[in-house]
Amino acid sequence: MEYYTINKFAKIIGVTPQTLRNWDRSGKLHPHHTSSNGYRYYSEDQLNAVTGIQTASKKVIGYCRVSSPRQKDDLERQVENLRTYLYAQGQPFEIIIDVGSGINYKKKGLQDLIRRIESNQAEKVVILYKDRLLRFGFELIETIAAIHGCKIEIVDTTQKSEQQELVEDLVQIITVFSCKLQGKRAHKAKKMIQELVGGDSDDKVGQDTAVAEQQTEN
């Protein structure tokens, strides 16, 4: 029979080693045996018993996001593409949809997703593109998920150049904060966006600003 250290056992079942120590003290789950130097070891039978409970309550969760209600068609396309991908995986799933800026951390869908990860209800989170989850802070959510035994899977892993990523990040920041400015300062911010995106038309920049204004109001 195979035995697992506390760290390995915790990682497999999606909890922390401290949780297992707490379970030992409370009587919820004792290790199979403890070595002479105090290390806890768990058996393969215990793993089978625990994962049988854990996997039944965990789900694969798809997450789709757009920045504005005006992007309803884009959101529907995301959901349809993600649903098709998840069906092909052959696992039960559900999809959380969200509307809001990639730098808004208070979106209802995002908060719901984080709560599910932290309560060990998510086996895997699947997103079409990395920036659909968050524009900034993706690695933090990824780390939180890993602590709870949840993997974040990105369907489209096409690499962007550093310059392209930097421009997209700067445009997002300037667009959102320009909505809070008035008069000449707002005009200057709009001009900066035009220069960053390579001289796009006023209409395009105006659309981006309108989207960001909608996000700010929400």
UniProtKB/TrEMBL annotation:
InterPro entries hit by this protein: DNA-bd_dom_put_sf (IPR009061), IS607_transposase-like (IPR041718), MerR-type_HTH_dom (IPR000551), Recombinase/Transposase-rel (IPR051491), Recombinase_CS (IPR006118), Resolv_N (IPR006119), Resolvase-like_N_sf (IPR036162), Transpos_IS607 (IPR048046)
CDD domains per UniProt: SR_IS607_transposase_like (cd03769)
Active site (UniProt): 67
Domain HTH merR-type: 3-56
GO biological process: DNA integration; regulation of DNA-templated transcription
UniProtKB keywords: DNA integration, DNA recombination, DNA-binding
Any GO MF annotation of the entry: DNA binding
Pfam families xrefs: MerR_1, Resolvase
Span of domain Resolvase/invertase-type recombinase catalytic: 59-214
Region (Disordered): 199-218
Family annotation (SMART domains): HTH_MERR, Resolvase
The protein's name in its UniProt record: Predicted site-specific integrase-resolvase
